């Protein structure tokens, strides 16, 4: 593909060309793809599975580096439909190890069985739990971030909006990696990158249809579901936003970052040339290594020591 990083292009054909017509089959394929990622080194981390009391309870996996002071409530990718604590394990562990920050990976409920606001409710329950149990977790309550990749990045952005509006736990930072923010699919990149690796128009339309549930039939869409619809972005936490060049989400993410800036919110925006959605999973590529290292560095600067 024109403009694609050569190292990524060599592996792009290996990415499964999936749709979401069968969510159960898509989850199986996603799990297999995650299982192909080399296991991270856990020697520097204490890893623990916990359950956050809620209705229903929310499973989390906590990755604690030695002497970590900050924490991030981390939401996995997977189009609101796929992913769990195990599929996110390679990335959550790398994020904790590279940043020196405690990562609380959230096993939120998935659509279509549990459409919006189930995933956001789970994330908010975990954010509240982390803030209330900061001492037990060895975390400074003033050093709590939210973050996520793809659909998880969209939920993280919504979490920041919800916490601001409801005077919830203070959030110091947003780490938004290629977030899914806008259900309308009207940007140039959404209209142009219709069949790029891993992400295509049909898949994007399906994930929003599943996540929005009955709302997709014409009722107003909440900005807590699609944060790009939020009118007021003032007073939100500083953000690091990363985008992939050959990605349907690219322009909605750039526009959101610009709107944050125009609202007085400090933003770092990195548009990675030659990349596609999720291509950082190709760990042998130099550009993927740089992307992961920069995510870790941004989180370390924001809430680490």
TrEMBL record:
Pfam families linked: Abhydrolase_3 (PF07859)
Keywords: Hydrolase
An example molecular function term from Gene Ontology annotations: hydrolase activity
Domain (Alpha/beta hydrolase fold-3) ranges: 72-279
Xref: InterPro entries: AB_hydrolase_3, AB_hydrolase_fold, GDXG_lipolytic_enzyme
Gene3D superfamilies: alpha/beta hydrolase
Name used for this protein in its record: Esterase
Lineage: Bacteria, Bacillati, Actinomycetota, Actinomycetes, Micromonosporales
């Amino acid at each position: 593909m024109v403009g694609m990083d050569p190292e990524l292009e060599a592996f792009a054909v290996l990415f499964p060309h999936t749709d979401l017509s069968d969510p159960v089959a898509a989850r199986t394929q996603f799990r297999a793809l995650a299982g192909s990622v080399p296991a991270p080194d856990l020697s520097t981390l204490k890893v623990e599975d916990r359950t956050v009391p809620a209705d229903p309870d929310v499973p989390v996996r906590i990755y604690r580096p030695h002497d970590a002071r900050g924490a991030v409530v981390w939401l996995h990718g997977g189009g609101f439909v796929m992913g769990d604590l195990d599929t996110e394990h390679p990335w959550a562990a790398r994020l904790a190890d590279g940043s020196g920050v405690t990562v609380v990976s959230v096993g939120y409920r998935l659509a279509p069985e549990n459409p919006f606001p189930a995933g956001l409710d789970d994330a908010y329950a975990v954010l509240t739990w982390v803030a209330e149990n900061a001492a037990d977790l060895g975390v400074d309550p003033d050093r709590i971030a939210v973050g996520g990749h793809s659909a998880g990045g969209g939920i993280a952005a919504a979490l920041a909006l919800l916490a601001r509006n409801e005077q919830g736990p203070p959030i110091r930072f947003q780490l938004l990696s290629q977030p899914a923010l806008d259900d309308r699919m009207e940007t140039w990149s959404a209209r142009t990158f219709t069949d790029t690796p891993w992400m295509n128009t049909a898949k994007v339309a399906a994930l929003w249809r599943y996540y929005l549930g009955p709302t997709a039939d014409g009722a107003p869409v909440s900005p807590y579901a699609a944060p790009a619809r939020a009118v007021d972005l003032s007073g939100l936490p500083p953000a690091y936003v990363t985008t992939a060049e050959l990605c349907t989400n690219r322009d909605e993410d750039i526009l959101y970052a610009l709107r944050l800036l125009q609202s007085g919110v400090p933003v770092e925006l990195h548009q990675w040339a030659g990349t596609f959605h999720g291509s950082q999973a190709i760990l042998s590529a130099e550009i993927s290594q740089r992307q992961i290292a920069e995510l870790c560095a941004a989180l370390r600067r924001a809430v680490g020591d």
